[in-house]
Amino acid sequence: MSLSYLFAHPETVSLSIRHPALLLALLVIPVFVVRTQRGTSGQRAALLCRCGAYGLVTLALAGVALSARLPSDHLSIVVAVDRSESIDAPGRQWQQRYLDRLAAALAPGDELGVVVFGKDARVARPPGRPEPVDLEAAPVSATATDIGMALQTALSLFPPETERRLVLLSDGNETRGSAAAQMARATRAGVSIYAAVPPHTRAADVSVEKVAVAPLVAEGSVFPIRVILRNQAAARAVVLSLLIDDEPIGRESITLQPGLNAVEVPYRMTGPGSHRLRAQVQAAGDAIPGNNYRDATLMVGGKSRVLLVSPQPRSPLADVLRRKDFSVTAIGPNDFPTHVDDLVGYHCVVFEDVTAAGMNARRLEALERYVKDFGGGFIVAAGERTYGDTGFKRTAFERILPVTLEPRQPPRAEREPLALFILIDHSNSMGYHIRNRLERSEDQSKLAYAKRAALAVVNQLKDSDYVGLIVFDSQPFEVAPLRALKENRAVLLEDIPRLQPGGGTDFYDALESARAQLVDSRIGTKHAILLTDGDTNRGAADHYPLIAALAKADISVTTIRIGDDTVNLTLLNDISSRTGGQFHHVENVETLPELLLKDTTQALAQAPRRDQTFAPRIGGISQALRGIKPNDLPDLNGYAYSRAKPGADVMVYVLARDKRDPVLAAWQYGLGRVVTFTASLDDDAESWVGWDGFGKLWSQVVHWVVREQTPWDYALAVRRVDGQATLTLHSFEDEDDGVLMARVFPGVDQPFDVPFVPHAPREFVARIRALPGGRYPLTITKRRGNREAGQRTELITMPEHDEEPQEEFEADHPNQALLSQLTAGTGGAVDAPLRSIVGRQPGTQRFDHPLDWLFIPAAMLLFLADVGLQRLVPSRPS
Length: 878
Known about the structure:
Blueprint: H1 3-8, E1 13-17, H2 29-35, H3 41-62, E2 64-71, E3 75-82, H4 89-105, E4 111-117, E5 121-128, H5 147-155, E6 163-169, H6 183-188, E7 191-196, E8 206-212, E9 222-231, E10 236-244, E11 247-256, E12 259-268, E13 273-282, E14 293-300, E15 305-309, H7 316-323, E16 327-331, E17 348-352, H8 361-372, E18 377-381, H9 384-387, H10 396-400, E19 418-425, H11 446-460, E20 466-472, E21 476-484, H12 485-495, H13 508-521, E22 525-532, H14 544-552, E23 555-562, H15 569-579, E24 583-586, H16 592-606, E25 616-618, E26 649-656, E27 659-669, E28 672-677, H17 694-705, E29 714-721, E30 724-731, E31 739-744, E32 752-755, E33 757-760, E34 763-769, E35 774-784, E36 787-798, H18 816-824, H19 834-838, E37 842-850, H20 852-872
Parallel strand pairs: 3-4, 3-6, 6-7, 15-16, 15-17, 17-18, 18-28, 19-20, 19-22, 22-23, 23-24
Antiparallel strand pairs: 1-2, 2-37, 4-5, 8-9, 9-12, 10-11, 10-13, 13-14, 20-21, 25-26, 26-27, 27-28, 29-30, 30-34, 31-32, 31-35, 33-34, 35-36
Helix pairs in contact: 3-20, 7-17, 11-16, 14-15
């Protein structure tokens, strides 16, 4: 028995003497004291030390001891220790100290057992002698808290015929099982449950509370990843990292303010299928590292599907949307569907310069249902031909729009024609892949992108503009002479895609031919674009007389050098600088179409206009205009008059007679969004097509207006827990009357089928075996009756390891209600003192604790002090 037990039970302690007669020897001490009263003070001190040593030896010989009355019954205590992640480092240290004190407070005949638990439970020590237990030597899975399993394990350890008490060291925040279900068993076994709550502090904790992302995003679209962070300390710097399928995609240092902080990160995904997104934060001095991350499932569908309706064979809007990774289907008005079922597969419908002649009432009513009832997006980009068409009056088209249809139009700012010559290098080197110089390529070569750029320019210009095209290798070849586009547009659109690479490089004769034809055209604004990737066969000095002739004729030449080498840079730069054109050294040829559109737009801006232009202004903050500044918008040559309807949001307007004429307006119509642009891109807004922000503006407008999902889309999520994978499918179809099956292709193994079971409205669950971490194809089949209603193949990401749940960190405070229920129902208490937990009525059994270990060393010290004082203090003469 230890002294700790005696101090814990002072009411049971008394003194006992084994040989009381030996205490008579203490009567000699007064005689010594009387004899030395006449001595010096040093002699008296020495005598007191001698008397003390004599007395202590006498007490030791007499057998003086501390005696305690032990309880007559046998106490067995089992301690269940919560070692889950919700118990921080100070709490774990407190648990160890508590267990040590409890072991010391038990009587020698009592028993102490220890169970540690988290996600599982294990016996760290079966009931036995009350000795300290090292909790760190008994690890358990800390990702969850199963108090019920811990109580069940502890209750099975109690020996028979003992008084039984169970001590629970936990915060009570169970995330698995049911502790309350074990109360009846504890009562039947006569076990009293006591609970003690470890201290818990989050004073310096930083945690990731939530990661929010749309359940389904379109491939290639920019979407926000929203991360909610909690900072329990003062403002501090942290590092936020994002990972997709365990691959880092971004890392940023930010400063967190106290409390909740929201961080939004824009991101663009290209890989379709299901992905695992993780947000994690790192901070110095963080109290709980386990809550520093959160996972979310990110489902990337196919590209956003846009149905573009236009009576024109060429559409600048279709071109720019395709470059921005939209899937665009272009049709004429006569091909527009008459049933809404043929529209719901598209995320958005765009009308470009559509008139009422090709749109009957059934088509417009199907469009209205698509927007109003199915949440489809609708955009109208047109001028006076559409908004002034009286055939749309009193139709579904008029009801859908956020602006009125008006027959009037402001005066148009007509410009004079532009004369443009395009000169393209089609030498042998232009036929190689843009990233691999050793590989020939048909659709990824430098010439392929040059052809796309030339087609984009041809589609940008009006029929009244003059365009010519010369291709060259070592000799020039005139594809089309300089003629009005009304005459040679068809030739250019047909012949440009047929160009093939071959031969050397010499652009002198091609440039001279272009100069002569531009001079003969007698058009005021003359421009040429020279596009090449290699060295010319002539010396640079041969070109300077031609450069002077171009400058004298007011012909501006833009030169574009493709590739990463530096051959001919000085010559090409001189051609542009001395003629008033632009020089571009382009390494990424994928930007060629936009670069040529921009250059042509700048040339168009030099053409004189016969009337005024209109300056558009931004009307307010909008997601569709994010990143576009008020002075960025180019002027308009004209626009269609209209008035905003009540509830419409005018994002861009023209100020006319102190009134705001809407240019870009939007509103919500039923479940869908509608956007109108009241300027024709072929005429009123032709300068917008080559503007730097043209693609950015329209991609943002379309992303803002599109419906997020169609009935063809699925959102898939994979979770792996305890070695079992759960596949959850969310459908966006209103009807749930089909049977869904999934066929998983695990690689070298045979594919296997699993059925989806309805779990909630539009939500289905399938359980599959856990495969090794990686990406796997999965085919979803839907059947209605005996027929197959649809099939779709997606990619899913199987996590490498089991998911670690975050429920451990969701509770900020102990679950006092559960702990009180467990203790009150079994006769125990919460946070009771140790004396109450181990205390019982004293019995007749006694236990003596001799004090020899104290008396003998003390006597030896006093004896040494006596000898020392006698040597140091001189004796008085008699």
